[in-house]
Automatic annotation (TrEMBL):
<comment type="subunit">
    <text>Homotetramer.</text>
</comment>
<dbReference type="GO" id="GO:0004566">
    <property type="term" value="F:beta-glucuronidase activity"/>
</dbReference>
<dbReference type="GO" id="GO:0030246">
    <property type="term" value="F:carbohydrate binding"/>
</dbReference>
<keyword id="KW-0326">Glycosidase</keyword>
<protein>
    <recommendedName>
        <fullName>Beta-glucuronidase</fullName>
        <ecNumber>3.2.1.31</ecNumber>
    </recommendedName>
</protein>
<dbReference type="Pfam" id="PF02836">
    <property type="entry name" value="Glyco_hydro_2_C"/>
</dbReference>
<dbReference type="InterPro" id="IPR023232">
    <property type="entry name" value="Glyco_hydro_2_AS"/>
</dbReference>
<dbReference type="InterPro" id="IPR006103">
    <property type="entry name" value="Glyco_hydro_2_cat"/>
</dbReference>
<feature type="signal peptide">
    <location>
        <begin position="1"/>
        <end position="23"/>
    </location>
</feature>
<dbReference type="InterPro" id="IPR023230">
    <property type="entry name" value="Glyco_hydro_2_CS"/>
</dbReference>
<dbReference type="Pfam" id="PF00703">
    <property type="entry name" value="Glyco_hydro_2"/>
</dbReference>
<dbReference type="InterPro" id="IPR006101">
    <property type="entry name" value="Glyco_hydro_2"/>
</dbReference>
<dbReference type="Pfam" id="PF02837">
    <property type="entry name" value="Glyco_hydro_2_N"/>
</dbReference>
<dbReference type="InterPro" id="IPR008979">
    <property type="entry name" value="Galactose-bd-like_sf"/>
</dbReference>
<keyword id="KW-0732">Signal</keyword>
<dbReference type="GO" id="GO:0005975">
    <property type="term" value="P:carbohydrate metabolic process"/>
</dbReference>
<feature type="domain" description="Glycosyl hydrolases family 2 sugar binding">
    <location>
        <begin position="38"/>
        <end position="218"/>
    </location>
</feature>
Length: 673
């Protein structure tokens, strides 16, 4: 091994960079001088399978003909959840197969010297895809992308092509998340009656939730890029990268990692050139290997927005331009990846970003909007992130599933910190098959989000039945897997169990707990909150000696409902409930390794029907229409006070100065709210 190689392997080990040699990349489709992209979003044809004959579409091969020729169809926007688009209760509550189709054109020039792909950003839960009647893909897992390479022999540039998608939202004990079909035998039920039961607290929206793209690459192309960043002691930034290519010329090169520094130019004459450009397009570093590192002196670091004085430094992103070139130095393929340079570190007491302790002040959220359900909508996602910045929050958790790549682009760019959670909500059972599903989804998530600066932590589950003995080995395995995939970020789990009985949190780098004092226990008694929370957190920290985040606390609040003195469900109650928590958090952050507080929830969201939910979960500080409840103003004061105290971030002019808040000792300083 040469010295350079030794140095590099040391670096790779230190930074935990992992080469995904066995799996195909899932780079977001983009246009470049060598790639083309076509959106298939729009209004598609749609039909649900009959409840009493769920397999009819397969038996009658609905994928072989236009959907409108095999029965009645309705119009369905893509992306969106199908549930709230029509006036039909049957469609809203449908469980089982639902069918979509549309036609599309392939440009003539795509038919030679190119590879053509079809990519779905997310379809909940199980999807089967046909093009011109031929199956091209199948994927399970509702919130992660998948891609199919299309065979040109099955496409036409002379006439329209047909895309058919069958999706199924049925969950079982080995899906993530889990669910079960309830088929009562009692004669009072109508024939064929069944329901899908699940014990997570959000509506099981179904549909093609995220954009659908057709795109091309050249026949030799950049398949995957893995980047990790690091700061050396002298302040020089290192960008460590691994580029995987697929070569057309010889099977030998198919899906091989190009260990570029051994032969810089491979036998097929192709080589990799990397350049890092700042926001103005200046080249700040270059590389000529498939695996390597770029050193960037005086790098502009990626910072959460409230940790920098100037807005333009928040979420600073460089562009890594990767090109695969031929012997004549002409670009065969080019891919541009936005990356932020930042350094994460953690130990038993702290978590730092670029050397500064980071205190998470944020939210649990949902991808949930009126009418669209979980379907991505640019209007809503920009509005949400404006509101997040307005509150002074610096972070959120993608509770309880991976959010769309379009959302993650925003958090990277705005400098909002993300705890990236997989869809394992409320899981139980912990058998081998479940572990396999869980592992597969974790791999896909890390593969998708590994290069994102805003993602600072992986969350491998929310509120599993982690008091059960089987949960111990199950999560021990999963933590080990995620660390093997990525050593550059801490791994957490969000638990709701007691510190004495939990079997999973001990494996986490940072522990997250959810607590609902005065809501699910001692309902209405806000006077128990502060002492209970303080004692509880002390117990966890004294036992596990880890940084800890309160990942959820909250109270259902119906906007416009008032009561003095305060009473559950009123805006006054939510205010009081928050104030009592703030006292606890301030006492804890002064004396313990509490490193964050995240309220449940950012906004009201839809749930299944139930007597504890008044048309959805109302714990939002914003309504589902994104209007503030009284609590939004109180939380905003606190978050801005913290941003000012911890990061020196200027307090907005429209907030009273100094902000009414509690001192770190938990005493009221200006309690005017
Ligand atoms: C929780 C869950 C979250 C629920 C929340 C609630 O602990 O993690 O999914 O929505 O409680 O409001 O009950």
């Amino acid at each position: 091994m040469t010295n350079a190689m030794k140095y590099l392997s040391l670096l790779l080990g230190l930074c935990g960079l992992v080469c995904f040699t066995e799996s195909k990349g899932i780079l977001f489709p983009q246009e470049s001088e060598t790639r083309e992209r076509k959106s298939l979003d729009g209004i598609w044809q749609f039909r649900i399978a009959p409840r009493n004959d769920p397999e009819l579409g397969f038996r009658n091969e609905w994928f072989k003909r236009p959907l409108q020729e095999t029965g009645e169809v309705t119009l369905m926007p893509v992306p969106s959840s199908y549930n709230d688009i029509t006036q039909s209760k049957e469609i809203r509550d449908h469980v089982g197969w639902a069918w979509y189709d549309r036609e599309f054109w392939i440009p003539k020039q795509w038919m030679s010297q190119r590879k053509i792909y079809l990519r779905f950003g997310g379809v909940n839960y199980h999807a089967i895809v046909w093009v011109n009647g031929v199956q091209v893909a199948e994927h399970a897992g509702g919130h992660l992308p998948f891609v199919a390479e299309l065979d040109a022999a099955n496409l036409s540039a002379q006439r329209t092509n047909r895309l058919t998608v069958a999706i199924n939202n049925t969950l079982n004990q080995n899906t993530i998340p889990q669910g079960s079909i309830f088929r009562p035998t009692a004669t009072r039920y109508p024939p064929g009656y069944f329901t899908l039961n699940y014990n997570f607290d959000f509506f099981n929206y179904a549909g093609i939730h995220r954009p659908v793209y057709l795109y091309t690459t050249p026949t030799s192309y950049i398949d995957d890029i893995t980047v990790s960043t690091n700061l050396q002691e002298d302040g020089t930034a290192l960008v460590i990268y691994n580029i995987e290519t697929v070569r057309a010329s010889a099977a030998l090169f198919h899906n091989d990692v190009n260990f570029g520094w051994i032969p810089t130019v491979n036998q097929d004459g192709l080589s990799i050139v990397v350049r890092l450009e700042d926001k103005s397009g200046n080249i700040v570093a270059t590389g000529t290997h498939g695996i390597g590192y770029l050193s960037v002196p005086n790098a502009t670091l990626w910072w959460p927005f409230s940790m920098v004085k100037k807005d333009e430094q928040a979420g600073y992103l460089y562009t890594m331009v990767v090109s695969l070139q031929n012997l004549a130095k002409l670009d065969v393929d080019v891919y541009r990846l936005k990356i932020g340079i930042r350094h994460l570190a953690w130990d038993n007491t702290t978590f730092t970003i670029n050397g500064k302790p980071f205190y998470f002040r944020g939210f649990g959220r949902h991808e949930d909007f009126d009418v669209r359900g979980r379907g991505i909508d640019n209007v809503m996602i920009v509005k949400d992130h404006n509101l997040i910045k307005w509150t002074g929050a610096n972070s959120y958790r993608t509770s309880h599933y991976p959010y769309s790549e379009e959302i993650m682009d925003l958090t990277d760019e705005l400098g909002i910190v993300i705890i990236d959670e997989i869809s394992a909500v409320s899981i139980d059972g912990f058998g081998q098959e479940l572990l396999e599903t869980h592992t597969k989804q974790m791999r896909e998530l890390v593969q998708r989000d590994k290069n994102r600066a805003s993602v600072v932590m992986w969350s491998i589950a929310n509120e599993p039945q982690s008091q059960k003995t089987e949960a111990g080995p199950y999560f021990k395995n999963l933590f080990a897997l995620v660390r093997e995939l990525d050593k550059s970020r801490p791994v957490t789990i969000v638990v709701a169990q007691d510190y004495r009985t939990d079997k999973a949190a001990e494996y986490a780098d940072i522990i997250c707990i959810n607590r609902y004092y005065a809501w699910y226990s001692d309902t209405g008694h806000t006077e128990v909150i502060t002492a209970s929370m303080i004692q509880d957190v002390h117990n966890w920290i004294n036992k596990f000696h880890r940084p800890l985040i309160i990942a959820e606390y909250g109270a259902d609040t119906v906007a416009g409902l008032h009561s003095s003195p305060q009473f559950v469900f009123t805006e006054e109650f939510q205010l009081e409930y928050l104030r009592e928590h703030f006292k606890a958090f301030d006492a804890l952050r002064a004396n313990t390794t509490l490193i964050g507080e995240m309220i449940w929830n950012f906004a009201d969201f839809m749930t299944g029907q139930g007597i504890t939910r008044i048309v959805g979960n109302r714990k939002g500080i914003f309504t589902r229409e994104r209007q503030p409840k009284a609590s939004a103003h109180l939380l905003r004061s606190r978050y801005h006070f913290l941003a000012n105290e911890i990061d020196g971030y200027p307090i907005p002019e429209d907030l009273p100065q100094p902000i009414p808040i509690y001192t770190p000792r938990g005493n009221v300083r200006h309690d005017e709210m």
